[in-house]
Predict the 3D structure of the following.
Amino acid sequence: MIYLDRPAWPARGRLWSHLISDVSLAELHAFAEALGAPRRGFDRDHYDIPAERFEMAVWLGARVLPSRDLVRLLRDSGLRRPKHLTPHPHPHPRPTPRRSCSCGTSQEV
């Protein structure tokens, strides 16, 4: 089943909801796609949904719950991915070290 909380989280001049599944991330991604939510809105275990899409999410079948119930459902389903346990890539990947070759080109080290 798909759930979301009411838009109450301010960011970038808007209010946002959290959209989750207690079944699978595949179900969550499929619902988000039907809702028209971009993949960049996915954050570890939920989608951030702007207030403008809240009514459409409910119309598509998402059930509205308080935020604390969303977290409980995620934990109980085993789909919760807390930020402190999720590895994040380095925010600014370092370029591959290179060395100059005598022929004027460079090679990876």
